[in-house]
Here is the input.
Amino acid sequence: MASNKVKFKTTEKNPYRYKAFRKELTKANKTTLDFGFFEEDKYPDGTQVAAVAAYNEFGTDNAPQRSFIRSVIDANRLKYLKLEEKLVAKIGKQSLSKLYDKLGEEIKKDVEAALVNFSSPGNADSTVEAKGEDNPLEDTGLLKDSLKFKVKKGIL
Here is the structure.
């Protein structure tokens, strides 16, 4: 089982590592990684991409649930925790923003793959006819292209 302890070593080469570690740890208490679809992303008709993502993720009265975010997070939870553990060990050597960027990129890569490879439940026959294909989560590519993460500092 992984330890929650953060190990660091002050050496003659870098006697100030502890100070850098404490500084980054203080920032960590005020930093968040927001992931998903944001208000500024819209389809040409003005529909927010976040709304379309939510309809697919949770389903509607007319469309089945097609979870592509929660399912990825659930399936990769241990992987992300292990990555976070490795990144936390680097606090003081790298900025917290860079560490969050690495975690965000990994999650984004996994969710993008899920979007592209999603197949079940498939589209209704009428949707397949209109789109010309049966990839339920791909049409214009805007959903995938709008997926992003933001590191926010000083929130708490």
Notes: The chain has one domain: 17-153. The helical segments are 17-28, 49-58, 70-88, 96-117, 125-131, 142-146.
